[in-house]
What does this fold into?
Amino acid sequence: MESSTSSTAKSSLWPWVAAAWAIKLGADAWFLEPVLRFFGRRKWLWGLLPLQVLYAPYALAVGAAGWRGGYQWKGRAVR
It folds into this structure.
């Protein structure tokens, strides 16, 4: 019985995940549109959707790499 409850909980979570992602996408577009218009690059707004999909794995990879310890940036060691 527990597995069906777990399955139901997971399936009921997806609408919330989708709504949060849509709100983030809308907010990013809202902030980026005037900036891209100012620089004459408004057509770049169409790249926002594919980049949103790539952002989560990128953020996870950077966070996981941060657990490894320090790194070098601009010739200096950051710990």
Q: What stands out?
A: The beta strands are 71-73, 76-78.
